[in-house]
Fold these 2 entries.
Entry 1:
Amino acid sequence: MTVATAYVPDGRPGPGRLREVDLDVLAVGPAELVLPEATVRDERGVTLFDDDGMVFEPAAGGGPLAPAAADRQARAFGVVNAAFHTQRALRFVSSLLNRPLPHLVVRIGMHDQPRWGGGHYRLPHPLEDGPVRAAGEVHLGGGRAFLAAPRYFHAPAHNAAIVYHEVAHHLCRHTADFRLNRLRPAHRQTNKKIALDEGTSDVVTAILLGTPDIYGWHRQRIPAWDRRRRQLAPQWTMVHFHGGPDQDPHGDGTVWASACWSARERTADPRRFDAMLLRGLELFGEEADVTVPAEQALRRRRHFSRLLSAMTRADPGLAPGVLAAMAAHGIHLGASNAELREAARARALAGMAAEGTAI
Ligand SMILES: [Zn+2]
């Protein structure tokens, strides 16, 4: 174990508390940490590590306005911080699934012309910007914008929420496999995400952060009632679900994430809910779709009710409470997302009419 510094989630909006942590590191390169479960590397060609250990200052994110030494310090901290949260997330997953996920590569400072402040999970495809490993990679930008109060250059590697969300896509790919990538050629997988993938990644992020306000730090200016904030605590229900190929899967995914968070809050042992969710993803992925046409199989794999069904099979004892919590969000077994949306909207309209609200 190596002593390192990282932000540890403290349940408040912000990067977390700066603390000394233990990091299990196998090897150190000039800008790379090799862990048992992941390799984390800054791709911008600057040597960040020497023999002086893994204790660095965040330097308020560094960035283009910082002195070169501060920016280098912030980049080194970013690699270590991303490594800590990647390791924490992957160990959380493997402890519940009783198996490791394929080795993950996390690349920082990607797609940096022009500057990029986001993160994404990528699988190989000819249209990707360079080769990607078949098992999947997390790409993090070098940062693009400053956050106010206190002023901070928002480098994604400094933000545990972004790291957790992208690592959770790796979990989804190697369990539920919503887009049936395992049936596609290894070099021609799809990177299109569906709402279940985004929502599951958001609720895993909330679980690891210990707060439903997962993006409360860098999206603090977006109000909680706006779906772009991705605050899971508001009661997002199927009334708010849009669906269709032109919709942002993140916004629709927030309905699923919010329902999962409610169900977890109702569970006496939250870790039992976490196991149910992850085992449900695994069971979902094991369901064979070979008897139906590919388009139909993919359509069915978008249904919230199908993952919910897999979860109830993963832990039947927990099912009644989880089903009740999901029902409050308009999610029931045995219906498509569109059917759930229409039923939820009809109920909402009937409720408003009964209350005498003008509609
Ligand atoms: Zn995502």
Entry 2:
Amino acid sequence: MNPQQAKDIYDAQGYVHIEKALRGDELKRIQTAFYKAEENSTLKDLLNQDDCFVNLVDHPAWLPIARAIVGDDVQLRYLRGGVIKPQSDSGSGWHCDLSGLRGIYLPDSIIMTKLFVYIDEVPEDGACIAFVPGSHRYELGHPLPDIESHEAMPHHVKMVVQAGDAVLMNGYTWHARFHNRSDQPRKVIESSYIHAWMKTQFEFAALSPHVQEQILSSHNRRQLFGVPEPGQTDWQRRLENSAPHQPVEVGI
Ligand SMILES: O=C(O)CCC(=O)C(=O)O
């Protein structure tokens, strides 16, 4: 699956499953760093814990897909780890993250796309994320059905994933996390990509000098991590190898 094929699936369904996005030694390294952060209660601050988490932001398995989806002005909104306990009533209920947003025609806009990177497998009875395919095209205000369980949502598709798989989800797609009925905790790294002119949920200044150095040395990383670029407005920002920003003259 190349980035364009992944985007086509995402555009049709409102999500795309990227199988085996991480594997081998790289997956092991990230798993080990994640377990350490879990032990140290630093999952909410992964970027400061290990360079392998910084490297996830521009990872070749999904950044080209996120870039094709969001555009060349893509930037990170946040990145954090999370663990859902085994045998827990930990479902989220069906919802749409962007349903409260006004002034944008969401069925035809990309405002935010979420990325889930799975540290361990999530079995069928685990805390799977599930989607209603195509719901990212529903009209604004389309009501969620009044249902009593996650399972009762018509046409839903549950993501049963392996360690190292990733899922990209349009922020307007109907989705839910199911209760965890399995004996396994669910471990995931969640992040979100937005446009460079939007507000991030992390502070660059809160990153360690070492992490800041990793970011400042690259044009694309400066954009992805929201570091201002002297002489450029946030509207003008583009990743390298993009067509340059061309202001268009309108009106008379
Ligand atoms: O944890 C999950 O699988 C989904 C979380 C969720 O519903 C959300 O991010 O809006």
